[in-house]
Write a structure and sequence with these properties.
The protein is α/β, with parallel strands linked by helices and 279 residues long. The protein has twelve helices and eight strands. It has an eight-stranded mixed β-sheet, with helices on both faces. α4 (85-92) packs parallel to α5 (111-118) and α8 (184-201) crosses α9 (206-227).
Length: 279
């Protein structure tokens, strides 16, 4: 049975696409203890006006809004763009109360950066959600800093579980996770594009080709989720000996598809490491 314990008050500083998705997950869970979200403009802040349990602040109207958001928060999610993180941390540092947990949503910003500005006594976690958070089906990697207790980690994990699954891992594996779950939706969309194009090539209309390809992926993923079976076992059940699927899968295997995915994710990991050095 899922844990229905109420979450504590949460502040989301920079409730853009990812921060906003997590906000929606928290509210939809029915477990929120109140969420305060900040955005730079009135236009962006207006997206959350009238949402029960949410206080939305436009910084252009309330320049001290980030500090105000921290006033009663137990968990603070930092969702601004990576380049803006150091300035934001210097701004909110004096307002962080003992026991407040700070969580990064910013790609590429290390826990060490947070601790160097906020101090090593502040519990800091680094998260790496992916875009399916907007539909409550994220995979979020979660790495903890030196001051994070087991209780802190469990609390932050419960926040991210409102919009999907969570993987606990050391920070050294965050970049590797990003090549699988972070970039992964793009790989899936690329495969759907390719299968759609193959259907068009066999004479199907654009609408039917798209329907067939998209719903096949959606249905297969739903079947995998519902059964809990190993994907290799489900593949075997579809692949009759000497049948059409077996021949198609053999073509993909001969083309080196597994090795191609390994090569692609290795390339993504190499680029992540380049970005970390400013390249």
């Amino acid at each position: 049975m899922p844990d229905m314990t109420s979450l504590p008050p949460i502040a989301i500083l920079g409730a853009g696409s990812m921060g906003g998705a997590i906000l929606q997950g928290i509210i939809a869970s029915g477990r929120d203890g109140g969420v305060t979200a900040t955005n730079r403009t009135r236009e962006k802040a207006a997206a959350f006006d009238g949402v029960a349990g949410v206080t939305s602040i436009a910084l252009e109207e309330r320049p001290d809004g980030n500090a105000d958001a921290l006033a009663g928060a137990k968990v603070v999610l930092v969702g601004v763009k990576p380049a803006m993180v150091p300035d934001l941390l210097r701004e909110i540092g004096p307002s962080i109360r003992p026991g407040t947990i700070v969580v990064s949503l910013a790609a590429g910003v290390t826990i060490a950066t947070f601790e160097s500005i906020l101090g090593t006594e502040v519990p800091v976690l680094r998260s790496m959600p992916n875009t399916p958070a907007v539909v409550g089906r994220a995979v979020t990697g979660l790495a903890a800093g030196s001051a994070v207790s087991d209780e802190d980690r469990a609390l932050v994990r419960s926040v991210f579980e409102t919009c999907g699954a969570v993987v606990d891992l050391p920070e050294s594996q965050i970049d590797a996770l990003s090549t699988i779950s972070g970039s992964g939706p793009a790989y899936v969309f690329l495969l759907i594009e390719a299968l759609t194009e193959a259907a068009r090539g066999k004479g199907f209309t654009d609408a039917d080709a798209r329907l067939m390809a998209e719903q096949t992926f959606i249905g297969a993923a739903a079947l995998l989720d519902a059964t809990g079976e190993d994907p290799a076992e489900l593949r075997r059940r579809v692949t009759s000996p000497k049948g059409t699927t077996e021949r198609a899968v053999a073509v993909l295997a001969d083309a080196g598809l597994p090795a191609l995915f390994a090569e692609a994710t290795d390339a993504a990991l190499a680029r992540a490491r380049e970005l970390a050095t400013g390249a």
